[in-house]
Amino acid sequence: MFSLLRLLLVIPRFLGRLLWNVIWSFVQLVMVIFLLWWGMTWYVNNSTSELANQLSNLMSNVSLFFRLDKGNLNESLQNLATDFYANQEGTRWSSNQAKVYITSSQPELVSAYQTALANWNATGVFTFQLVETPEQADIVAGDAAEVNSQAAGLAETKMNSLTNRIVAAKVTLNTYYLLNSDYGYDFERLVNTAEHELGHAIGLAHNDTDVSVMQSSGSYYGIQEVDVTKVRELYAQ
After folding, report:
1. Taking the chain (237 residues) in consecutive chunks of 10 residues, what is each chunk's mean pLDDT?
2. Closest among 116, 68, 84, 136 to 227, alpha carbons compared
3. How far apart (Å, rounded) are the C-alpha atoms in residues 218 and 207?
């Protein structure tokens, strides 16, 4: 009888200890996963190595698996923003030309930038000149694996507030989306994205009214006549 009572007392203690061990092990696992994810995020955002690019793609796939319902995947990809950009009306360079230095180490993005620059030059309304050092450049064109961004690219401009003239610009293509096959960016869309960001760098705002390279999402269109007209009008001021 005494042994039975002891057994009845021991069982709850054993189950309680077992439950605590399971909970604590789970907490430790979550902490380790969080630290690993934070470490990888920091690494891909601060390195241009091939390993960083591979980790970026891996993290993108994991994020897609947990964040997106498969039935809504296509809609989510179609609505991916090209970037988030706002500028003051009439902001432009002092003349319709600028020097560009490409810092990207990704061959696909370098080719996309070069093609986009050539396409803008072919319009005749703005001239980009490639230079060999960033110190010579007005615009620096690079890339980054922006895991926490919802945009495929970014354009940042520095301007003189007194003259409303751009004095420097930085263009960034987001490898987290652009080099991940799950997002469907072929070379044409890479070029369209580069053209879009360069459009911001010369003073163009988003245009969701027309078929335009400056549409705020999708990167489905290259430079259109409406874009050429807007640049011509901007630099005629």
Report:
1. 61 75 86 82 64 60 49 50 60 96 96 98 98 97 88 91 92 93 92 97 94 90 98 93
2. 116
3. 12
